[in-house]
C-alpha cells in the first residue's frame, strides 16, 4: 500500500472556545499564543503474576490529560476576566477545540473543521512575562473531567 502525504494542518486558525450554558453557545478565547489539546491515554492495570515470563498489563479506561494554553493576558478583556472568575469558583465549563483546515497545494477543505469537545475546569491561571521588554502573558491549565468527543 502506498502512502500519499496529506497536507499539514497549521496552528494558525485553530481556536479554543468555552461555554457556560451546557454547550449551546461558545465564546472564543482571544489573544491565544499556543494551545496544547488534551492527550489521549489508555489506563492500565498491572497483570503480571509471579509465574509470568514478561510484564503484563490490561487496558482499563481512557484518561485525558489537561489542556494547556498560553495567552497575551489582558485583565480587562472579557474572556480573560471570565476565565479567572471560573478558575476562582471552580466552575465546570464545556470546551471546544477546533482544528484549522489543511493547507497547501491540493488540500481538500473538509465540510466542517475537526473538533474536540469536553467538560473541564480551569485549574491554573498564572500570569507570566512581567518584565521591562516583554508582554504580559498567562499560562492556563484546564482539567478534563470526562470523555473528550473527537469529531
Summarize the structure.
The protein has 151 residues and is mainly beta. Helices cover 8% and strands 42% of the residues. The protein has one helix and ten strands; from the N terminus they run ββββββαββββ.
SS field, number of helical segments: 1
The average pLDDT value, as a whole number, equals 90
**What is the global morphology?**
globular
Described by strand count, sense and barrel closure, the largest sheet is:
8 strands, antiparallel
Low-confidence stretches: none
End-to-end span in angstroms? 26 Å
What is the string of helix and strand elements? EEEEEEHEEEE
Helix content: under 10%
Count of beta strands:
10
Radius of gyration: 19 Å
- Supply the helix-strand structural class: mainly beta
Oligomer: single chain
- Strand share of the residues? 35-45%
3D architecture notes:
The chain has one helix at residues 78-89, and strands at 15-19, 27-28, 32-36, 40-46, 57-64, 67-72, 92-98, 115-128, 137-144, 149-150. It is mainly β and 151 residues long. The strands form two sheets. Strands 1, 2, 3, 6, 7, 8, 9 and 10 form an eight-stranded antiparallel beta sheet that branches. Strands 4-5 form a two-stranded antiparallel sheet.
